[in-house]
Structures are given as structure tokens and as C-alpha cells.
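Subject: complex prediction, re-run

Hi both,

The earlier run crashed halfway through, so I resubmitted it with identical inputs.
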Amino acid sequence: MNVTSGNHKFRKAKSLAMNGLCIACAVLVILPLGMILFYLVQKGASSLNRAFFTGIPKPAGMPGGGMGNAILGTLELVALASCIGVPIGILGGVYLSEYGGERMNTWIRFWADVLNGVPSIVWGMVAYTLVVLPMKHFSAWAGALALAFIMIPLVLRTTEEVLVLVPRSYREAALALGLPQWKAIVRIILPTAMRGIITGVLLAMGRIAGETAPLLFTAFGNTNWSHHLGEPIAALPLQIFSYATAPADDWNRQAWAGALVLVAMTFCLSLSVRLFSAGRFQKNT
Amino acid sequence: MNFAMTPEETKTAPRSPAENAGTSAPQPQTKPAATPAASTAVPALSVKNLSVFFGKHQVLKSVSLNVEARAVTAIIGPSGCGKSTFLRSLNRMHELVSTSRVEGDIRLFGEDIYSRGVEPVIVRRRVGMVFQKSNPFPTMSIGENVVVGLRLNGVRNRALLAEQMEKSLRMAALWDEVKDRLNAPAISLSGGQQQRLCIARALAVQPEVLLMDEPASALDPLATSKIEDLIRELRKDYTIVIVTHNMQQAARASDYTAFFYMGELVEFGPTAQIFTSPKQKRTEDYVTGRFG
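This time it finished cleanly. Structure:
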């Protein structure tokens, strides 16, 4: 009997067609990213110079100027938001994974997922109500708080997910040594899950670095350097928004450059995620 | 095997005062099934009418037995007979399951480990445990794993830590294999070495009793025989309770054997007696391989 005969050719053709379809879909996914990068570099790279990184916006109609204040502002906002959001998110994740009862956890997870789905502009409104209205002016604090709201559910859920992956046997080994539970968590369970948690935090930072809507009426933007956190502060997404919609060629070009820098910043965050996934003793999986 | 430790050294090691409080301990019970034949010394662990429940399910039914100090007591029985639950109730590890409940009385050198005011943390420091699957902490080196219990319990003295590290590794018969790479990751060791590392880690906090939950069941025969040699050596200084599926292992490595069946203690006595002239029909059937 000849097992290779019959519809062998047809099968081979089908396999080839499916293979081609998969490759085409993969290209379709990567293509927009490549196009965006190409377009950003083409339009924006020419405006990247020293003044762009160190200067502040010039008055309308005057050439030159830069987005130094906006770049610094975004870094400040992300750092500040992380200071608020990361501890709360991690501690909440630890509660879910290590302490919480089943019924309580179901509710917390449900609420965290709902919060995750809240449109970011709503968080801007919340921060506006909580900070801007009582202080009577826009501020970096308000912007950071709005961004922190977005971060908390993200960090909380990833922390919980990676902690659950730490085998139960490590917890048992730690407790069997006579360690109190909090010490077992802080010194053994959290370090074991650390690279996963850091990955989650970096991804959340990348997510908030590009947020525009929640900053519109909290951080507000600033055409100058801001000298303390109670003042309105510039941010790259805000600056890009106002320059991209402005009727001036020079500003439009700078908006492209700003977008390029913003993409580069989030790219660096993703890259550091890759680096962190190679822990001290752990193999890169 | 060469051990750097002498009995004098163990006595100087910091121990809890309970060891001296042994005079108030209850005498061995008179129940025939519960008392090792020739034992008159104060038991390390005295278990009386122990019942353990998970939710509504009763896993252990009124178990009473005495664990002799500085001897190896093996717990055998078919799967699901409550061996592991019994072992875990001895250092209150079963409490990690929130639905668990315990009735009865367990005394560690005369001290009730379930009385109010006794923290499970303190019990576990005195009653160490080695698990079925070796579980060295993956973020730590070999050396760090050994002394992690001491370090996290507040010992800062580097000389003391180094001394205890070597002593524990020697006791676990691992020193010669790892002394040149104490800073290597613990998970770079072989399975058998990892399990001996876990034994060293448990010994480093100087427990009075060491519980072993099928410590060799995941190991190859060579690594298994190393662990058994080790258990026989450790008996000189420690009280050991070992759960095993392997009847030959119980026969080879233990002084006393308890046979559990369906949550009950069927028979308890010197190992030789359990394996050669058991009093109970069920014990005989089990050790001769007729069931289980």
C-alpha cells in the first residue's frame, strides 16, 4: 500500500496556504508599528537637536525652542505617580494573594478590573475634584494622582498574578523555619516574584507615560519650567497635542519630534522589562 | 561519615527551656498500641486523642502515640490515611488550610503546643520540617539558603552564621560537595543535593524535632540511600518523625513504626516488631504487601 499517494498534494497545498495566512497576519501586526516608527523618524528626527531637549517653547511665531520642560515634566509625573501607585498596587496584590479570603478577593478583583476599564479622562475628573478644586489651581500633584489611579489596578493585578505563581512549597518552607508570615512574604515570597512585579510596574509606567486625557485639566501643561509640584506642569503628550493642532509648521515639526521622543521613552521601558526578565539566578524564559 | 559535631556541642547550642521542663511531662500512656515497648524516657512528642478535621471531613481519628527522643519514628500507611496530616499537626503546619480544626492534645517535651498563647511560629522553630519536594529558595545561593532561618530570625553575627552554615552542611552530609561553591545558586544543585540542602536549612535553626514528609520519594535510589544514611546519623542528636511510602525505607531507617489506616493508628511499636511479628492482621497485610 502506498501511503504517500492520494490527496498528499492537496494536503501540502493546504498546509502551505495556512502557513502563508499566519505569516501575512503576523506582518499585518508588525507593519503598522514599522510604519509609525518610520513616519515619526522621517518627520521628527530633523527637529531633534540640543535645543529641543534643553529649551522651552518659544512664543508663537518665533522659530526654535524645545520641549525640555515637557520631557522633564513627563518624567516627574511618571515618577510621582509611581510613588503613589506602586506601593498601593503591590500591597493590594500581596493582600489578594497572601491574606485575603475567597469572597473578599472576588470582590476586590472585580473592582480592580472595573477600575482598569474606567476611561482615563474620568480619572482626570476625579483628580480634578479631589485636588484641583480644593487647591484652586492646576498642579503636578493632581496630574500624578490621576495617573496613579490608572496605575493602581494594573500593578495590583500583575502583582497578584505573579505571587500566585510562586509555588506553595516556598511558603511552607519559610513558615516551617519558624518565620512569621509577614517576614516570609517580605524576605522570601516577594523576592522570588520580584522580576514579575518589576515587569508589571514598568509596563504600567509605560502605559501612563503616554496618557493625555487625564492630564488635560489636572497637570494642565506649562510653557515654562515648573519649579514646584504645586504648579501646573508640562507633559510631553499635552505638548504634542497643543503643537500638533497649532497652525504653525515649526510647531507641527516639533510635535512629530515630541512623539518620537515619547515612543522612544516607552520603548526604553519595554527594553528594561526585557533586561529585568533575566534575574539573578533565574534563567531567561 | 565524618561529623565535626560531638554531643557536647549540641548541648551548648541555644535551646528552648522546655527541654529542661521535661520532668513535668506525662508518663507514656498505658494504651498497648500507643506505647513503644521498652520506652521509659520522657517522650519528645506525646500525642493524645488527636483528631484533625478539614471542614466536616475527619482525617485523623483519636490518634495517641509517643515519639521517643533521639530516635527515628516512621509513619507508614496507604495514601490518604492521614500520615501527612498527622505530621503537619505536630508543628501546626496544617493551620495553613483555613478550614482545619484540631482536637486532642500534643505535648512537645511536656509543653502543650496548642495551648492559648503558644504561637505557631514558636512551635515551628522548635519542630522543623523537610518536605517531599525539595524547595530551596531560588533567589538565594547555597550558603544563604542554609542560614536563612537564622538570619531572618535576627542573627546578624557573620562568624556565627558561617560556623552554623558549615556545621549544618556537615550534618546534612553536603559540606564536601558544596564547600567550594557556597555562592552558587541553590537551584544549580542536583535533586538529591537540593533535598540535603533543605535538611541543612532545617537543621540550621536548631530544632528539637525534625519532621520529614516523604523526603526521598522524588529521588533516585542512590540519593535515597544517602538520605537514609543521613537520617540514621541525625538520630544521635535529633528526634525524627518520617512519613514514608516506602516500606523498606521504614524498615531500614527507623526505630519505631506507626501504621496508619483510614485516619486511625492501627499499630505502633518497635520497627522490628511491626515488620516481623505485627499484632494486628491489617498491619501484617499491609507490610507484607497484601494491600495498600
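Chain A has ten helices and no strands.

- K.
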